[in-house]
Specification:
Layout (H helix, E strand, L loop, with lengths): L1 E2 L13 H10 L4 E4 L8 H11 L2 E12 L2 E8 L6 H27 L7 H8 L6 H10 L6 H9 L12 E2 H10 L3 E4 L9 H9 L4 E5 L5 H14 L2 E4 L21 H13 L1
Parallel strand pairs: 1-2, 2-3, 3-5, 6-7, 7-8
Antiparallel strand pairs: 3-4, 4-6
Helix pairs in contact: 1-2, 4-5, 5-6, 8-9
């Protein structure tokens, strides 16, 4: 079972790297990619945990990008987590994420949510890489939302009262960054972000390697369309559960979407040419 999209508490996931790999082993995942948002800080621990459990770990990342004025995400796979370019990006993004969260917490307090503090958000994160899911958990803990989803639906979406925008790379810059680290790049959950055929072609023209056609948020017609478009543009296909943990997505499991061995081999071969 090959799952190329997962997260830990090094970004917005619930699990430590060791806990994630324990769950992967229990789910009989044989190949897992850790793709935390804008950071590779969990890769070393995840790699050690994967070795102990006989799982192959594919070092990865999920980069926040902008496409025609809206947010999309680019996954990197098979990359070198010691790449200087990647490490600099991660350091810069860590500082930017904290500054953004400080502003979002200030908005929450101005809205009368006095118990929603930066310290509470940090505690919810279990680390330093702060994101909206951590603020969502703080809102739930303080009784301002029924669930993480409710917090996003009411407060944290892109037009919500607590929303603060953030820095995003262009898709072309993300593709170049991943390639400089020796990896392959793919558009994550394109259906969820409304990536059109024309936009996917533009990404392919910018050097994109693949598209995550197989994702829990995609209905069968989307899977078919993205697989067909990928073939037409010379892109490979990736698959992943986009697992964050039960507190974030109660019904999602590791291995919810898997990649065939043949498609995985093609992606790995592409990385050798990157």
């Amino acid at each position: 079972m090959i799952d190329l999209h997962s997260h830990t508490l090094h970004s917005d996931g619930q699990r430590t790297p060791d806990e994630l790999l324990a769950e992967a082993a229990a789910a009989k995942v044989t190949v897992l990619s850790l793709t935390d948002h804008d950071t590779v800080s969990g890769i070393a621990d995840a790699s050690a945990a994967a070795t102990r459990r006989g799982i192959r770990l594919v070092p990865g990342i999920e980069l926040s990008c902008e496409l025609h004025g809206r947010e999309v995400h680019v996954l990197g796979h098979f990359l070198d987590p010691c790449s200087g370019t990647l490490l600099k990006l991660a350091t810069d993004m860590l500082a930017e994420r904290r500054e953004r969260m400080e502003r979002m917490v200030a908005r929450a307090q101005a809205a009368g949510f006095a118990k929603v503090t930066l310290e509470r958000v940090i505690a919810a994160s279990g680390g330093e890489n702060l994101g909206r899911p951590h603020l969502a958990r703080a809102l739930v803990e303080c009784g301002h939302a029924k669930s993480v989803k409710d917090a996003f639906d009411r407060f944290l979406h892109s037009r919500g009262p607590l929303w603060v925008d953030r820095r995003r790379l262009s898709v072309a810059d993300a593709v170049a960054l991943v390639r400089s680290a020796g990896g392959t790049s793919s558009i994550a959950h394109p259906g969820a972000n409304g990536v059109s055929r024309q936009e996917l072609k533009a990404c392919a023209d910018a050097g994109l390697d693949a598209v995550e056609a197989l994702h829990p948020d995609h209905v069968p017609t989307q899977v078919e369309a993205y697989e067909r478009w990928a073939a037409g543009f010379g892109l490979l296909v990736t698959a992943g559960s986009d697992y964050h943990g039960p507190a974030v997505q109660p019904d999602r499991k590791l291995g919810d979407r898997t990649l065939s061995a043949e498609r995985f081999a093609a992606l790995e071969e592409r990385s050798r040419r990157a």
